[in-house]
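Both lines are quoted verbatim for reference:

——
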Amino acid sequence: LQASKKTEKIKLKNPVLSIILFIVSIILLAGAYYLDGDHLSGDWATDIKSIGNFAFSQCRLMSGELQLGSSLTYMGEYCFNLCSALTSANLQFCNSLGNLPKGVFSGCTSLVRVDLPVQINTIQDNAFRGCTQLMVVNLTQKGAKLRLGDNAFYGCERLATFTNDPTLISIGISCFSFDSSLLNKLWEPKYGLKNI
């Protein structure tokens, strides 16, 4: 009988211990990427190979610049969505990324600038939807051929330019808001728009 009482006590403590260990691990993880409040970079960020779906979704601790390195080969859907204090994302060294996944930076309301890698050819649905402060999408390759998904830049009224004049192969449904300052420029011959 006493052995079963000890077992019951251990069972009752395990959930509490699990919760405590979970909270401690979250705090340690937060310390790993909340480096100085203005920069999300360093060894962990440049060495990361894969970021899963919703990995940092709604992370309030991420602020300032996000800089990811050349070892990144995969970004999951919505992995940085709703990171409302993120101001810039530098992905130009992510040489293995050919596309930005669905909703990757959607709802990042403080995001002003994004630097994309040379190989980028697709910006999927909702990638930057609701990034109300986004003004510049810097493409490292001049004349990059891009496909833009549905709602990719919807709600980005301040978006004024794609640098290095990409050739837009296709634009998805409601890709831009009707009041986007970039929308009227897209008809210029330099963008080479082929399909809407």
